[in-house]
Amino acid sequence: MSETPTPQLGSFVRELTVADVIAETPDATSIVFDIPEGDEKEFRYKAGQFLTLRVPSERTGSVARCYSLSSAPDEDSQLKVTVKRTRDGYGSNWLCDNVEPGIKIHVLAPSGIFTVDNFDQDLILLAGGSGITPVMSILRTALKRGTGHIVLLYANRDEQSVIFAEQLRQLQEANPDRLSVIHWLESLSGLATPEMIGNILQPVAAKRHTYMCGPGPFMESARAGLRRSGADMHLIHQEVFSSIEGDPFAEVVIAEPVEGDDEPATAIVELDDEVHEVSWPRNTPLLDVLLSQGIQAPFSCRKGECSACACILKSGEAEMMHNGILEPEEVEDGFVLGCQLLPKSDKVEITYNE
Ligand SMILES: Cc1cc2nc3c(=O)[nH]c(=O)nc-3n(C[C@H](O)[C@H](O)[C@H](O)COP(=O)(O)OP(=O)(O)OC[C@H]3O[C@@H](n4cnc5c(N)ncnc54)[C@H](O)[C@@H]3O)c2cc1C
């Protein structure tokens, strides 16, 4: 079998060394990474964000897979992701079978918008199976940094498959007035239906922000349950676990302008503590323009499917070529995907900071 040639990696690709591997359950493994000295700023993350890992493949060169950080930024000096085997899945099984301390893995910097603005508010957290990973980071951060009350409803197949069971028990014990953990085990109670989820959440759903993550059917039941319990659907935040297609690690190539092209637009982009003003060719997605100029905007799939590059259109006009992830409510709130965004007006202001 001939190996697929490796495309040139983008200058934005980083390498992490595995420090530890932890068997969490029979089919879930945590991978702990050291943060290279000097790269602390690049690997700064918010609870709920994820890393994109480059998994080697003899068939395609590599596949890109996202894994939420289950570590908590305020408490852990290392990065930790937790990978659950997907039946017949390539990337998750490769990682669970091959990763050991000392090996190096190419990654993209942390990204994602499944994050909490205000940790002092009361929260509902809903997790199914491996969906606990970003939820765990949010939970620990909220308990450490905030003051609100938190209800966590965590659904699993059976007791054996509960990831972080002991850690959750300890958090509950240490925070009896602030945390209620409700475990839902399919082996004991059957699938969690919208009626059951609605009944459990009804006393608390009305005004709380909800963060949920899990397999598709769980998320559907949870959404329907929240609707039944009178929740404001604008306060629901969800992280959808899917596999990336394509190669987001490849270097960005910007087409040279040719005669007859329209004049480029101007993008004014707020990112972290800086404001960048860049020339924006009309046929080039904003993310590619920023990366090609060495501006480290967040991203993962580069295909409009993952929301890691979501930002807010502050003024001017721009349109997305494809939106495979943002909910209508998020688009109404001004969110756009940087990797799919083309300018429609001469000047466009964007912020990644809200
Ligand atoms: C934001 C985000 C966060 C996530 N966080 C987590 C998390 O915390 N924990 C977690 O467990 N999951 C998480 N996921 C899901 C994760 O990214 C993967 O989708 C999941 O692990 C399944 O990937 P897989 O490759 O095992 O399975 P699949 O994607 O189902 O694998 C099958 C695919 O791999 C291809 N394939 C098969 N063999 C090969 C080969 N030899 N070479 C190349 N391609 C091959 C097939 O063609 C097929 O397309 C997250 C996803 C997202 C988007």
UniProtKB/TrEMBL annotation:
Q: Does the keyword Iron-sulfur apply?
A: yes
| Protein name per Swiss-Prot or TrEMBL | 3-ketosteroid-9-alpha-hydroxylase reductase subunit
Which prosthetic group or cofactor does it need?
A: FAD
Is-annotated flag, keyword Aminoacyl-tRNA synthetase?
no
Task: Say which domain of life the source belongs to.
Answer: Bacteria
Q: Where is the FAD-binding FR-type domain?
A: 11-117
Q: Which SUPFAM superfamilies match?
A: 2Fe-2S ferredoxin-like, Ferredoxin reductase-like, C-terminal NADP-linked domain, Riboflavin synthase domain-like
Task: Kindly give the Gene3D superfamilies that the UniProt entry links to this protein.
Answer: 3.10.20.30, Nucleotide-binding domain of ferredoxin-NADP reductase (FNR) module (3.40.50.80), Translation factors (2.40.30.10)
What organism does this protein naturally occur in?
Answer: Dietzia timorensis
